[in-house]
Amino acid sequence: MPATETLKRFREITRLMKQYEEILGVAYWDMRTGAPRKGIPLRSEAVGALSAESFRLSVSDEMGELLEKLSSPGEALSRIDRRLVEEVKKDYDRNRKLPPELYREYVVLTTQAEAVWEEAKENNDFPAFAPYLEKIIDYNRRFIELWGVKGTPYDTLLDLYEPGMSAAELDRLFGELRSRLVPLAEAIAQSGNKPDTSFLEGTFDKEAQKAFSKFILNEMGYDFEAGRLDESVHPFMTGLNLGDARITTRYLSNDLTFALFGTIHEGGHALYEQNIDPELGGTLLAGGTSMGIHESQSRLWENMIGRRRGFWQRYFPELSKHFPGRLDNITAEDFYRGINVVQPGLIRIEADELTYNLHIMIRYEIEKMLFNEGLTVRELPEVWNAKYKEALGIEPPNDSAGVLQDTHWSGGAFGYFPSYSLGNMYAAQMMDVANRELPKLEEQIGAGQLHPLKDWLKEKVYRHGKLLQPAEIIQSVSGRPLQSSYLCDYLEAKYQDIYRL
Amino acid sequence: MPATETLKRFREITRLMKQYEEILGVAYWDMRTGAPRKGIPLRSEAVGALSAESFRLSVSDEMGELLEKLSSPGEALSRIDRRLVEEVKKDYDRNRKLPPELYREYVVLTTQAEAVWEEAKENNDFPAFAPYLEKIIDYNRRFIELWGVKGTPYDTLLDLYEPGMSAAELDRLFGELRSRLVPLAEAIAQSGNKPDTSFLEGTFDKEAQKAFSKFILNEMGYDFEAGRLDESVHPFMTGLNLGDARITTRYLSNDLTFALFGTIHEGGHALYEQNIDPELGGTLLAGGTSMGIHESQSRLWENMIGRRRGFWQRYFPELSKHFPGRLDNITAEDFYRGINVVQPGLIRIEADELTYNLHIMIRYEIEKMLFNEGLTVRELPEVWNAKYKEALGIEPPNDSAGVLQDTHWSGGAFGYFPSYSLGNMYAAQMMDVANRELPKLEEQIGAGQLHPLKDWLKEKVYRHGKLLQPAEIIQSVSGRPLQSSYLCDYLEAKYQDIYRL
Q1: What processes does the entry annotate via GO biological process terms (chains A, B) (predicted)?
Q2: Nearest-CA residue of chain A relative to B57?
Q3: A interface mutation test: which of B33, B217, B240 has the most A CBs within 10 A?
Q4: For A227, which residue in chain B has the nearest alpha carbon?
Q5: Are residues B205 and B329 part of one domain?
């Protein structure tokens, strides 16, 4: 096959893989936003069957031959084609190393384990879940061996979600986080200046919440002609193609902030997907470059913009108008303080902006112990509880509120948790640059002009899609590798002010 | 390959084809119910690419070998497998006979032609559309040659939509229709007892229309756990799987009947799909057996139930309650007469239950002339206008309201139109039997008990899916082949009463 034919065929197959991803994404979105209950069993089978077709393309002998030819040093490829080859080759190498039978067993195991976990959590019965968790960890250990250890065994798992990340790097990042945020949280706990949050109690009309969510998305520059907002039990964003990045949220009548910050969070993810360079459209590079970078955009918008003083100076009057009589005696400053209350708790998904990172740090340390240091599943609850006591000063009364709280491990997603805090660190480091490169940023946000920041992020992050690796993104934005000091600086300054420390 | 292996592989591939159909159906539904505009170009490409993958399965050499083995007289197949082989073989034979290049040209041509038709209709410019229509007809003539002429050339096209149907049969059916319905329409036109329709003018709250649509679907036995009701510009039903048959409708604030009867119509289609035998689930036999039989169910529910006197004796008070103050001085009888007004018009999709059949008859006669009798495209407008004058007593003032009104021909769908009237004929013949086998039917409908009829239709029609051919269905329900006399009897009785002829 001549070189141009090889490239043509490679582009054709990878485009088809992306097209499977897109159409399956529509089915996935549909199942979570209102597909009728009785259609789900056959729908799930159909989704599984078509996923298998796409997987088959990605690990075929033909793909192997194409990749070999296109990876040879003599090939003069465009920047896009070269990255595409790299990306696809990485998955190919990984997937070809897993015996299909082993992988099938693992899929069956995790499917069962997810159901077992759900019941165990409900019944506070860790021993019921433990044997499944042990097996899942065993399988992951075998996968690591088959894939090849990079640095430490846990590094191999980290690379699945944050390409290039290592335990050594995370030790450095979480080390500083621990040394600065644990004392900060303690100082806050002892502060006498607690924000008032009583005005957030009671009910808030759901239709008004919906209207305000749409309003804020518009303000952020979310393009409703390239997306839509729906409701689902667990909010998510799905980037189906560059012209279709959908958001879901959930309106709770007794909680104003859940939908509000959930919407801004998913809106941040969507801004990323909507602003990828059209040149990448339809290729496998048309997506966020890593879990961590994606999470940096949702968290930047949710916390650093959405929970910012200046933002509410501009938008609190609008918010108040949406809920007549509900927030009349509250000032923008009251609201800002109320939504930034810090309260060490046991549950990660209910955590505030600051202590959230400590929840993640604990999970990171435990995962590393499991894969690098021989921690056993039996020892997990005890280690979990001790770490909560040490970092947050509180101890779970039972495993449901402790080691059983998250679904991730039941699905085998080890190495995923760090992405959440990496997102916060990337975001803080980016905002540090943005504050210097956009000298009027504070003023603009206070005036409801969010587009200069959005345009800046588009230029620096969004447009690149997967063309740049996470480490390349943060290096090119800030001129240095990822540091946790920016996040610590940001959190210290913000919360020292709020709590008058 | 041993026989059991052959069968296993055949079932596997055809199940996968069905799964493609289902997932692509979700994407199709999504595009018509709110997918964002900017995502459509890439989405359409993705749908096209996956459709091509499924098509490839259906015409592969492997499929050819499987079909040959499974069609051999020695094979002992179950009833389901045998029908599945027949169905798949029919498509295989048809598709293998078309040179792929020829078919690709045709797809491009019809895609262009649809856009040209839309503009020509807007500008009343038949000459602009004529060359495209000529080419489309030429392609269809070549397809007929390649597929093989059955009886007459037009029969080959009819078989695409109504397996086993022929021009000879339609001549017989439409012949009687013409001889009885044209005089009936004339008598109605001269009647002095015209129903009052003035109360249908003005506005009707859309939310109330939506609520009443849902109420009526529930009454019909539509299962909302196996479907959903949404809005789209052109209402449709899509049977994604046996647990997911979705309906769309369109609410017009100045037209109460559009959404009302549209919903009942699509609801009839959906009842068919929701009640197919679960044994057929996931196979290519899980669907309506033909366009005509499908249309019989939508029209039976829309017209023979939804426009029935007894139905509104039960439901008019409910309807009136949904629109406070709007229908206060109207009786159920007024409403029944008002929604059954007969008014010869030029536009098929606006036609009443009776004259609708004359619109179809005209299209049937013209299509037959085009493919069997050498009518040229140039002569079309003149023939069209003459036929309207003759059958309906009115003549289009221009081609936009005449020969250019329907989209079907621009997409190459010749042979499709007859299905609409076949649906009416099947429905009337079935209802004739239902009236005898369910002696309390009238009473039940008057009491809002629609489930005995639904259950009867499930037993006679729905559950069979594609296991029975259309001719087998009508034969097994009524003990004889399709006749148009039942439809004529029904329409005469109904409208002689309403118009006191």
Answers
A1: proteolysis
A2: A53
A3: B240
A4: B36
A5: yes
Residue B178 makes CB contacts below 8 A (sequence gap 6+) with B358, B361, B391
Q: What total number of domains does chain A contain? A: 2
Residue ranges for the known binding site of B are: 265, 269, 295
> Domain for residue A156, yes or no?
no
In the prediction, which pLDDT does A74 show? Answer: 79
Among the candidates A97, A116, A143, a domain finishes at A97
Chain B residues with CB-CB distance to A246 below 8 A = 36
Tell me the three state secondary structure of residue B415: coil
Q: Does A12 touch chain B (CB under 8 A)?
A: no
Residue B293: inside a domain, yes or no?
A: yes
- Considering only residues 17 to 56 of chain A, which have any Cβ-Cβ distance to chain B shorter than 8 Å? 18-20, 22-24, 26-27, 30, 34-43, 45-47, 49-50, 53
Catalytic site includes residue B266:
yes
Q: Is the same domain home to A86 and A218? A: no
Q: Do B240 and A43 touch (CB under 8 A)?
A: yes
Residues of A noted as catalytic: 266
Count Cα atoms within 13 angstroms, Cβ side, for A187: 15
Which of B16, B41, B223 is closest, CB to CB, to A49? B16
- Domain finish residue from B97, B115, B131: B97
Q: pLDDT tens digits, residue range B446-467?
A: 999 999 999 999 999 999 999 9
B26, A24: Cβ pair inside 8 Å? no
Looking at the structure, do residues A304 and A437 belong to the same domain, yes or no? yes
Going by C-beta distance under 8 Å and a sequence separation of 6 or more, which residues neighbour residue A252? Answer: A258, A259
Please identify which of the residues B162, B169, B266, B365 carries the catalytic annotation: B266
Instruction: Indicate if A78 and A204 belong to the same structural domain.
Output: no
Q: Are residues B454 and B329 in the same domain?
A: yes
| Residue A295 assigned ligand-binding role | yes
Q: CB–CB of B248/B265 below 8 Å?
A: no
Q: Write the pLDDT tens digit of every residue in B34-92.
A: 999 999 999 999 999 999 999 999 999 999 999 999 999 877 899 999 999 999 999 99
Smallest CA-to-CA distance from B297 within B220, B228, B214 is with B220
Q: Which residue has the tokens 């549950």?
A: A347
Q: Does B227 touch chain A if contact means CB atoms closer than 8 Å?
A: yes
- Strand B229-231: give its sheet, edge to edge: B229-231, B244-249, B237-241
Q: Does a structural domain hold residue A385?
A: no
A322 and A459 inside one domain: yes
H helices of A100-205, in order, are 100-123, 126-147, 153-161, 167-190
Q: Determine if residue A322 is labeled as part of a ligand binding site.
A: no
Inter-chain contacts counted by CB atoms under 8 A, chains A and B: 124
User: Which residues of A are less than 8 Å from B223 in CB distance?
Assistant: 38
Contact A70, A85 (CB under 8 A): yes
CATH number at residue A488: 1.10.1370.30
On whether both B454 and B316 belong to a single domain, the answer is yes
Q: Cβ separation of B241 and A47 shorter than 8 Å?
A: no
Residue B400 within any structural domain of the chain: no
Nearest Cα of chain A lies from the Cα of B113 at a distance, in angstroms, of: 27
Are residue B63 and residue B209 in the same domain, yes or no? no
Q: Measured between alpha carbons, how far is B157 from B152 in angstroms, rounded to an integer?
A: 10
- Domain membership of residue B232 as a residue range: 201-345+436-462
- Please give the pLDDT value at position A1: 65
Instruction: Give the pLDDT of residue A209.
Output: 98
| pLDDT tens readout for residues A355-411 | 999 999 999 999 999 999 999 999 999 999 999 999 999 999 999 999 999 999 999
The complex's ipTM works out to 0.94
Query: CA B265 to CA B297: how far, in whole Å?
Result: 8
How large is the average pLDDT for residues B160-171? 96
The answer to whether B224 contacts chain A (CB < 8 Å) is yes
C-alpha to C-alpha distance for B208 and B212, rounded to whole angstroms: 6
**CB-CB under 8 Å, A241 with B36:** no
